[in-house]
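In practice, a research group might receive sequence data for several interacting partners and want a quick structural hypothesis before committing to experiments. The following worked case mirrors that situation: the sequences arrive first, and a predicted assembly follows.
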Amino acid sequence: MPAFPKTWLWGLLAAAFLIPLLRPLLPDLVSDYRLFLVSTMIIASIAVLGLNLLTGFNGQISLGHSAFYAVGAYTAAILMDKLDMPYYATLPIAAVVCFIVGYLFGLPALKLEGHYLALATFALALSVPQILKYKWLEDLTGGVQGIVLSKPEVPFGLPLTEDQWLYYYCLVIMVLLYWAAANILNSRSGRAMMAIRDQYLAADTMGIDTSLYKTVTFGISAAYTGIAGALSASAIAFVAPDSFNFFLSIKFLIGLVVGGVGSLAGSVVGGIFYVLVDNSAQALSTFVKNDLGLPFDLSAYTVFGILLIVLMYLMPMGVVGGVYYLARSMRTMRGPQAKEQATLKQRVSG
Amino acid sequence: MEQFLQQIASGLANGAIYACVALALVMIYVSTDHINFAQGEMAMFSTYISWQLMSWGLSFWVAFIAAVAFSFMLGVLIERVILRPLHSAPVLSIVVVFIGLLAICNSVAGAIWSYLIKEYPSPFPKSSFGIAGVIGPHQLGVVIVTLIVLGLLFAFFRYTPLGLAMRAAAQNPQMARLVGVRVDWMLALGWGLAAAVGAVAGIMVAHIVYLDPNMMGGILLYAFAGALVGGIGNPGGAVLGGFIVGVLENMVAFAGNQIEKATGVYIIGNGEKLTVALIIVIFVLTVKPAGLFGRVVVKRV
Amino acid sequence: MKTNRRTFVGGLSAAAMLSGSRVAFAQKKYDDGATDKEIKIGHTNPYSGPASSYGVIGKAEQAYWKGVNDRGGINGRMINFISLDDGYSPPKTVEMVRQLVEQDKVLCLFNTLGTPTNTAIHKYVNQKKIPHLFVATGASKWGHYKEFPWTMGYQPDYHTEAVIYAKHILANIKDAKIAVLMQNDDYGKDYWEGFKDGLGKEVSRVVKHVTYEVTDPTVDSQVIQLKDSGANVFFNISIPKFAAQSMRKAANIDWKPAIYLNNVSGQVTTTMKPAGFENVQGVITAAWLKDPTDHQWDNDEEMKTWREWMAKYNPNGNLGDVNYVYAYSVCYLMEQTLKKCGDNLTRENLMHQAASHQKLRVPGLLPGITVSTGPTDYYPVQALQLQRFKGETWELFGDIMHAESS
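A structural hypothesis for the assembly, expressed as tokens:
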């Protein structure tokens, strides 16, 4: 998939930075609540990007990214709560911790493929809430009560609200992380990662140190999702073990699949998507009940489940992939290429 | 000593549950090479169907047979309609579809039958059936039913031509086609059987854990652990694995208990059962992926 | 909704112009969420996810407010009850509550369910000065009027309930050796802390304390451990499914302690029947609501009204589910609180009215239990009565035990 057109990218970035500043002018449109919501979408996009790096670009299936998200969130929470660390300092530490955890998990994962890896990560996701409640860690983690935190304060007396600041904070982090990811993927390492995904044996034979790449990618992927978790600890200002259960992994999976496996832009779309559906599930359910007259309560998970299956048929490349192919097929229908194709056809047929 | 025996007995009883579900998991794996993450939810759904039939007046065993038959057909249907077009799709797509099935089964069951727990009857006579004080009649019944199902499956695969055809289709689809086996239908059949076995598991389990949409959630991981320990390609091994996991789980808690009694220090106990299952899964997958009884598969390059 | 200052000033000047010789009529004061025509109430509930069995409470409450609107609303205003699903996940609750407060601009939050979920929004609602009324959790921390003046609980808290059990055990069971089964989360911990407090110096009477997770398929192994401790009292802190399992298992392995069961699982249809009636004779629990399966309420006026309400607004509801009685009672309390506000529908006044109930009779509560609140008493219901299981239903005994704070 090609890189996102550069002009579009700059345009979107500019919009992302400038629109929230319009808050005094359009208080209802650019409300604190909306900014908060968009911040959660940004966090979701980062988490999905983490999963995408591992699964989309490196071919290792993970159903357990909720575990890394939890580790990131708790690391940040414990640092802020016990050591009084400022919120921005927790990010690099959370990233390092998650990298290590991911790397360690990647080691035994080397021997696993496809279904088996999915199974191992599935087991990880299911057991994380329990591990977080472990008695010996209770003093650190607050056990089942969780840890209450404070939202990041606006620094330097800037004339911003807390939610505006949170938004910019998340946005800057996201831009940095995506830029880093794009660089990794465009480099030799990135190509090696994708080679491992596409043709493992060929990559191995050609001298790529597949074990190293696979485990390091696991680490990086865990670090990304962990950073998302750490950001969420600040945004929600609360962590509790039961927030990080298997359903969270399902949401990441949705984001991955809907946005586009193996696509950076797709990760953004995916993150936005699953937050939107999650929040609109209620409205959807009311719609189904009242307007369509069905006697069932449509919960978000039914929608997610159906979407997952349907997308595998109609748009296995996700929304971004679908748009790309649509754009490409539209382009080939007109312009100089079309003329060439037409003449070629003529020559061949007769 | 009494506690020790009781823990073993209770572990065996739990293990019977895991063994039953593990059997269904193995069925899918053997016939299609896939790991069905949605197995637990499908089994739960079938159990609700049987409950519904009973609440409409059918007796336990009639509802049982009807639900199992219905699940069989549902399994075949799922394979034909949803999985067939994805035969050559990458593993990720298939895993995603399974997760989708999991989500749908769970939320639809909740939508139709609500999340309040329901009592589920036991077909086994109340008294003079179990070993009093150690294992109850229903739990003994579960063990027996699991072994019967295992025996039936074994006989089916070993001694019937259809069973032979299924095994052939799973092991070597190309050759099987050449010999005239309709491989596609064998896959569908495998799914149907697995769904049926899952229904049996769910129905047996429901009396113990009470019927609610989330009842299989906790069991699934233990069932996976059991199937892996015994060898995911081996039905008998999976059943044994289920029992082992059940007993092991209790033994860990028991040992932790004793340690706490002796030293006053809590190291491990009831709160860590899922973690133990996780460790088992990871350990088996990395150290001995074939489990105790599975065959090591060597891939030709 | 424009700021209340403008409407207030507008109203005041209008009144000033109109009054003259007439006695000044009551001022209409509104905060966001209240108008001449409607009152918006915000609510979150787990309609999906692991705690979705409590979704019935939310549904019942929707039905109640519909009934109120059918009868003409409260003081002529319709109730717009906005109930959102948070799946029992604290981050989701935060999102939903922010939506309710900042987007939908509700007047107040009502009966939001769950301890971790309410903890996540606790600071926020108090910062924003949103009445956070009658939260649906028994945790004891919702009555701290000093630090959190906008949050008020409703049901007797778990801590108080456990203290009552502890005192009853000490008073009635000679040489008690106590075994405790506890769900390993906040609700379980709350009961456990209360129990220990209630035992005081005698806390060493607890010879065994085991926990379980909601994901455990059975608690058989735990029950076996408890029997092995030689205890003759069993304090059972578990939700219906595990309460039923544990009591059944105890009977199966011939362990017959005196059982004290937490109120959360004290229902006949979801706990006692599945456990097997013969296994639960003599079990003691505390109650504050009328159990609809208890035949002594068959001809009770309040329950008759309740049943009519169920038939009209919840035809598919399970008449044996005490959650419906709970929902009915807490909605009634809210309705009365709103009525008392009259035309002064500011958040401050709402809080004030909520904190000034004097022995209010709320239908569904046991006879003798009333709701009292005050500026320093943010615990509406603080009385319980013990009941013992006999035959196929509960039998109340003893006096109402009050733990009202001044």
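Before designing any experiment, note the following. Chain B touches chain A through 47 residues (CB under 8 Å). The mean pLDDT of chain B is 81.
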